[in-house]
Amino acid sequence: MGVFEKKSCFVITGASRGLGRSIAINFAKKARKESVMILLSRDTKALNEVETEIRSCCQDVSVVVCGFDQGDLDERKFQNIFENIFKENKLSIDSFEQAVIVHNAGTLGDNSKYVKDLVNVSELNTHFGVNLTGNILLNSACLNFFTQERFAHRYVINISSLTAIRAFKSFSLYCTVKAARDMFYKVMAEEEPNIRVLNYAPGPCKTDMQIKCRENTSDPEVKQMFESMHNEGNVLECDTSIQKLVQVLETDTFVSGAHIDYYDL
Amino acid sequence: MGVFEKKSCFVITGASRGLGRSIAINFAKKARKESVMILLSRDTKALNEVETEIRSCCQDVSVVVCGFDQGDLDERKFQNIFENIFKENKLSIDSFEQAVIVHNAGTLGDNSKYVKDLVNVSELNTHFGVNLTGNILLNSACLNFFTQERFAHRYVINISSLTAIRAFKSFSLYCTVKAARDMFYKVMAEEEPNIRVLNYAPGPCKTDMQIKCRENTSDPEVKQMFESMHNEGNVLECDTSIQKLVQVLETDTFVSGAHIDYYDL
C-alpha cells in the first residue's frame, strides 16, 4: 500500500512558501481522507494563506498551522511541540497509521562571503543553530512523539540539495549544512530501520532562495552559472520538482538514507 | 620542491596528544631548518611536553606553544591570534616561504546517544561550536594572516575520518561534523586555487578518542566492530598513519579538496 493511501499525519517545516508550500499543497492533494497536515513556519500570515488554499482544494484533510522558529533554540519549545499541537487541535494520536515528516526549513547563509570572510561568531552560530541544532531538536521531538509503537509507518524526508555533494564557491555555509544534514539522516537511517529516510535534492526551483543564490553570490563564475540557468529557463517550478518527490514516495523503492536528486530520476 | 623542503610555518591544532602530537613531531622531523612549529591546544601542560620532545630531536626548528580553546567562541581570541604569536615570539613573517595549517582539533560528541536522544540544546551548540564554528573562525584567522601575498605556498589539511563519508550508528554527531568539514574544505579548495587543501582520513589510530569510540558507543554492532578491530591488532599507531600523510604531502599529487583515506594509499 502506497504512502499516500494511509491515514497520515504530515509534518512540514518551512511550509509558508516556496518548496515547503508546494510540498504542503501537493501532499494534501494526494493524502488519504482524514489525514492531517501540520504546517510549521515562522511566517504565520503566509502559513494561513497556505491553509486556506489547502482547505479550498482538499476538503477531506485537516490542516493545522503553527508559528514555529526552528532557530529559536529554547529546549522547551521543542520538547512538547507535538503533544501541544495534538491537544490544542483535539487530534487523537490513535487515529493515524502513518507519520510523514518533511524537514524543509533552512536558510542559505550569506553567499556574498567566501570562506576567508567568515569571521563573525554570531553569524556562524545563527546559521548552524537554525540549520543543524534546531533541525536535530525538531527531529528528536518528532521521533519521540511519532514513535514506532504509535506509528507503524514512518517517513522522514530531508530536503537536501546538489550542494550537499558538490562544492560551489561562495556557498560554503550552505554546502556545509547540506552535507552535514545528509550525513545526519544517513546515520538515522542506519539506526532506525523502521523509518524510511530520504534525502531529496529538488534541483534548482523558483524560490526566494534561488533569487538570492543568483543575485547575492560574490563569485562571478557561480553567478554566471545561476544566471544562465535562469535565462535558459532551467529553473524548475516548485510543483514540478515536488511532483517527482511524490512519485519517489509512491514508488517507495529508494534505499533508506539515500540522496536522490530530481535529475537522477 | 617538496613541502618539507621549504622554510615553513606550521600551525597544528590539538597538538598536545594523539594524532596532533604525532603530526607535530613527524612534521618537525621532516621540516627544513629554521621552520617554526606553532602548536595549539587547550592542554598547555601536555603541549609543553610535546615542545620538549621536539626540541630534543629537532634542534633546527623552533617551537611555539599556545594555549587555545577552539570552542571558546570569543571573536577577539581568533582575530589576532597569529599577529600576537608572531609578535610575542619575535617571529618575522618575511622569513617563511610557506604556511602549513593542520586542523586536527575536534571532539567526538556523545556516542552513547542515538539520533533520537539528541534533545539537549547546549550539548549540540557545544559540539557544533568547537567542531564547526570554532574551526571556521580559526581557519579564517589563518587565511587572513598567512595571505597569498606573504606566503607563496600554502597547505591546509583537515583531519577527516571515514565517518565523513560513511554512517555509523550512534556516531551521528561525529559523522555530521566530519561530513560538514570535508565539504567546507572542498568549497575552500574551489575558492582558493593557490592553497593546496587536503581532507585526510587517518584510519583508526591508537588515541583516547578511539577508546571512547569503542567503550562508549550505545550500539552493540558498532561496539563489536570497534572491539574486533582492537582485538585483531588493526588499530594503527598514530605515527604509522601520519607517516603516510607525510608521504602524501611529499608526493603532492593529490587533487586539492580531495578526501584521502589511509587505506586508499
Automatic annotation (TrEMBL), chains A, B:
Its EC number is 1.1.1.153. One of its GO terms (biological process) is tetrahydrobiopterin biosynthetic process. Gene3D superfamilies: NAD(P)-binding Rossmann-like Domain. It is an enzyme of class 1 (oxidoreductase). Belongs to the sepiapterin reductase family. It comes from the Eukaryota. Homodimer. One of its GO terms (molecular function) is sepiapterin reductase (NADP+) activity. This is Sepiapterin reductase. One of its GO terms (cellular component) is cytoplasm. It is found in: Cytoplasm. It comes from Mytilus coruscus. CDD domains: SPR-like_SDR_c. Its main location: cytoplasm.
